[in-house]
Each structure stands twice: as C-alpha cells, then as structure tokens.
Amino acid sequence: MKKLVTSVIAAVALSATSAFAADVMPVKAAKVVAPAPEPSPFDIAFGGSIMSDYNFRGVSQSNRGPSVSAYVEPQFNTAFGTFYVGLAGYSIEWPSAPGYFFSDPAAEIDIYGGWRKTWGAFSLDLGLLYYYYPAERFGIDSDFLELYAKASYAFTPAFTVGASVAYTPDLLNYGQFGFGDTAGIYLSGTAKYVLPWTHGDLGAFVSGELAHWFLDEGGVFGPGVDASYTYWNVGAALTYKALTLDFRYHGTDMSRRDCTTFLFVGPNNGARNWCDDTFIVSLKFDTTLAALK
User: Fold this and answer.
1) Contacts of range 237-241, beta carbons closer than 8 Å, 24 or more positions apart
2) pLDDT of residue 99
3) Domain extent listing, the chain
4) Does domain 42-292 have CATH number 3.30.200.20?
5) What pLDDT, on a 0 to 100 scale, did the predictor assign at position 39?
6) Which pTM value belongs to this model?
C-alpha cells in the first residue's frame, strides 16, 4: 500500500512538472503576412515607332520617306480619372531645297496634357496639344495649338467605336503671313475589331478611320478657296505583347492641285504628291512601367 501511495504521488508530481514546463516553454509566434502595398497612383507610359512614312491626317510629313518617333507620358491615376502630360517626337522632312522651299525644321515635337476616364464600356479623353517645330529656317514659325476631345464605346470586348474632335485657332500659324488666321476643326470616327484568334501572346485586329478637316475659307488659301478635305485609313495589325506591326492604307479626296493649296505652295512644288493615297507599314512599341513590374 505504501508503494502504491508513493507511486501515485510521484506520478502527480511528474504531471505537474510537465504541465509547468509546457506553460513556460516559448511558443513560436504565427507568421504575420504583411498586407500587399497599395498600387502607386503614378505611372509612366512610353514607346516609339518606325514607319515607312509619317502620315498626318492623310498628308506625308517625311517627304514620303521613313520616320521614327518616341514618346513618354507620366500619369497620375485617381478615382476621378487619369491626369497626364506627355512629350513626343517625330522625325520629319520639310525640305528647304529648291523645288520645296519649306522651313526645314529639325523635328516635330508634341507637348500635350489632359485627362481621361473610363466608365464601364465608355471612355473619354480631353486634352491640349502644342505642335513645336524647332530650328525652322527663313524666320518661319509653324508652331500651333490644338484642343481635342476623344470618346469611345466598347460594344463588346472585341469591337470598339470612337469619335473625336480637334480644334486649332490657326493651322501651322498661317496667320503669320498676314492673311488672317486659318482655324480648323477635325472630326473623326474610328472602329476597331480584335480578331477572335490568339496564339499565346500573339493577336491581331483590323481598324479604320473616316474623318473630315474643316478649314476656314480665305486667309492664306485665298478668297473663296476651301481647302477642307476628307481623310480615311483602313488596315490590319499583328500584336505581340507590347509590339504592334501595322499595315495600313491611307487616302484623301484631294487632287495634287488641292494638295498644293493645302500646303500653301506652288503647283509644281516637289511636295505635290504628299497627299496621294499611300500604303504604310509601321512597327510600334507601347507599354508602361507598371506593366513591366
């Protein structure tokens, strides 16, 4: 009996000691997972292109030759939309040689800023763009300002239509020649359809634009002369990640005589074919810093 009591006491003591040891042993804390940081409201879009011809609204800006471009666009994203500023540059060729007598600027530099927002399938973009032509010759200043508004609606994830309007109070600063300012309103409609096939990151789309540039009669063009014209383009493109290879046909309703009127040059000027219909191939790169992370 004595042995039994001793054994019970020993067992109780051992149990108490084990319990106490469990109480005082350090407990490994659960791993705390830090919440994911909020995405930065700041981003930068950037890209560039190489083109067989720089065509601006149906008119060559590179003397029907190749051109390169690049841009950078800092962005600030808020609940009220995205505010942005941008700087873009294009290589152009407005020759000053005999037969052309243009101002031969070093490049076209576009300085712009605005605001854009998307509500479901509808998007709106409002902004201001300044076309700057550095190092012009003969004392000519072709810089001009343009206000723009762009809207688009995605009927399906694949099919989107758009409309835009751009207004300039004096195209190419033609008012400097003493004939009065030449205001212009550019109205445009676009459509884009993403083809229903992909192969990994490879995709394709078709798109087009129909537009009309309403230009003030008179002024630099002469009394009663209407230099307004219709422009269109249609093409297809292959996409791979941030790259787009675009094949596009551009056309206007301008004759070569109309083109010389629009360019404010003589009928035998070497630029008289700048408004001719043309096929252009371009390779473009567009991405953002956020997309690279």
Assistant:
1) 237/204, 237/205, 237/206, 237/207, 238/202, 238/203, 238/204, 239/202, 239/203, 239/204, 239/205, 240/201, 240/202, 240/203, 241/201
2) 95
3) 42-292
4) no
5) 80
6) 0.86
Overall average pLDDT of the 10-24 stretch? 42
Give the pLDDT score at 30.
57
Burial grade of 276 (CB within 10 A; 0-12, 13-18, 19 or more): middle
